[in-house]
């Protein structure tokens, strides 16, 4: 395995954090900026929309630019966006920072995958791509829970300062160690949009969109739910996010095993139905025996 892939994975840890950490600190941001929770939730919604749209668009626009140069430029913009977030005086300024960060994040993720695939031999390509995705997964498993605890001690702004510093570390390592990678032609946007018009591809995109919408709706307001309904402190909330992250990472492996066992089509149906059932049970989790035991342990 080419050691340079680990440097790319380090960058994906940073971009994974900036995308996911905000869900765990939403109430703190709402209080600090003097806005409602629903308004603060738009910081997640807009980020996701910009991320989804700008990824393919920017990749086509920048297809001729040398990949290392584009990667470094994306990291620089990512750094600026996080510094803007850290020192945001109001909601509008922070929203602008989130839009800037989402655009750079989309490019960093795509470039990490494409560059990783090019700098390793074909035999190690799957491992290289897996390592890139592991960087994002690790930010979910460890970064978000740790970030919630740090936010409780030092404030939410320190998290984005830390992410900015991490991105500068990646910038320095990539500028020194990563080789130049030539740009290449990509599929025009018109053809990409035409492909989505296909019934099979369009339905797959719709299923993914609705599932992710459900996931991010829960994730965005998970902390307010745990704080107000279950009355948990930051330690317990951090533990919940840790379990959430472990389940998310494990789910990828389980999905592969399930697909090999019963086939891709059946496994997709099983996952979608299970996901819908789990979401429908969320309102009833306040009656769980686990929380009763937790309350007794805390003397409540």
TrEMBL record:
<keyword id="KW-0472">Membrane</keyword>
<feature type="transmembrane region" description="Helical">
    <location>
        <begin position="7"/>
        <end position="31"/>
    </location>
</feature>
<protein>
    <submittedName>
        <fullName>DHA1 family purine base/nucleoside efflux pump-like MFS transporter</fullName>
    </submittedName>
</protein>
<dbReference type="Pfam" id="PF07690">
    <property type="entry name" value="MFS_1"/>
</dbReference>
<dbReference type="GO" id="GO:0022857">
    <property type="term" value="F:transmembrane transporter activity"/>
</dbReference>
<dbReference type="InterPro" id="IPR020846">
    <property type="entry name" value="MFS_dom"/>
</dbReference>
<dbReference type="InterPro" id="IPR001958">
    <property type="entry name" value="Tet-R_TetA/multi-R_MdtG-like"/>
</dbReference>
<feature type="domain" description="Major facilitator superfamily (MFS) profile">
    <location>
        <begin position="4"/>
        <end position="300"/>
    </location>
</feature>
<feature type="transmembrane region" description="Helical">
    <location>
        <begin position="156"/>
        <end position="178"/>
    </location>
</feature>
<keyword id="KW-0812">Transmembrane</keyword>
<feature type="transmembrane region" description="Helical">
    <location>
        <begin position="234"/>
        <end position="257"/>
    </location>
</feature>
<feature type="transmembrane region" description="Helical">
    <location>
        <begin position="97"/>
        <end position="116"/>
    </location>
</feature>
<dbReference type="InterPro" id="IPR050189">
    <property type="entry name" value="MFS_Efflux_Transporters"/>
</dbReference>
<keyword id="KW-0813">Transport</keyword>
<keyword id="KW-1003">Cell membrane</keyword>
<dbReference type="InterPro" id="IPR036259">
    <property type="entry name" value="MFS_trans_sf"/>
</dbReference>
<dbReference type="InterPro" id="IPR011701">
    <property type="entry name" value="MFS"/>
</dbReference>
<dbReference type="GO" id="GO:0005886">
    <property type="term" value="C:plasma membrane"/>
</dbReference>
<feature type="transmembrane region" description="Helical">
    <location>
        <begin position="43"/>
        <end position="63"/>
    </location>
</feature>
<feature type="transmembrane region" description="Helical">
    <location>
        <begin position="269"/>
        <end position="293"/>
    </location>
</feature>
<feature type="transmembrane region" description="Helical">
    <location>
        <begin position="199"/>
        <end position="222"/>
    </location>
</feature>
<feature type="transmembrane region" description="Helical">
    <location>
        <begin position="70"/>
        <end position="91"/>
    </location>
</feature>
<feature type="transmembrane region" description="Helical">
    <location>
        <begin position="128"/>
        <end position="150"/>
    </location>
</feature>
<keyword id="KW-1133">Transmembrane helix</keyword>
């Amino acid at each position: 395995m080419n050691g340079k892939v680990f440097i790319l994975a380090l960058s994906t840890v940073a971009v994974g954090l900036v995308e996911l950490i905000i869900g765990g600190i939403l109430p703190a941001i709402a209080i600090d900026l003097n806005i409602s929770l629903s308004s603060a939730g738009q910081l997640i919604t807009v980020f996701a929309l910009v991320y989804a749209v700008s990824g393919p668009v920017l990749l086509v626009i920048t297809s001729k630019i040398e990949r290392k140069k584009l990667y470094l430029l994306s990291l620089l913009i990512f750094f600026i966006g996080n510094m803007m977030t850290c020192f945001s005086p109001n909601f509008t300024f922070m929203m602008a920072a989130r839009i800037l960060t989402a655009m750079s994040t989309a490019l960093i993720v795509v470039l990490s995958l494409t560059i990783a695939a090019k700098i390793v031999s074909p035999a190690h390509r799957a491992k290289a791509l897996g390592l890139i995705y592991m960087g994002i997964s690790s930010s979910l498993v460890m970064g978000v829970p740790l970030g919630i605890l740090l936010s409780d001690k030092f404030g939410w702004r320190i998290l984005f300062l830390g992410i900015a510093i991490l991105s500068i570390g990646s910038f320095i390592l990539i500028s020194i160690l990563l080789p130049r990678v030539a740009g290449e032609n990509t599929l025009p946007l018109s053809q990409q949009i035409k492909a989505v018009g296909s019934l099979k591809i369009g339905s797959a995109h719709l299923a993914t969109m609705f599932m992710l919408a459900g996931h991010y709706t829960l994730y965005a307001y998970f902390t307010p739910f745990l704080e107000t309904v279950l009355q948990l402190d930051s330690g317990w909330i951090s533990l919940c996010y840790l379990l959430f992250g472990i389940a998310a990472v494990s789910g990828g492996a389980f999905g592969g095993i399930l697909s090999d066992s019963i086939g891709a089509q059946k496994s997709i149906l099983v996952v979608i139905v299970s996901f819908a059932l789990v979401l429908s049970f969320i309102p009833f989790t306040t009656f769980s025996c686990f929380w009763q035991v937790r309350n007794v342990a805390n003397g409540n």
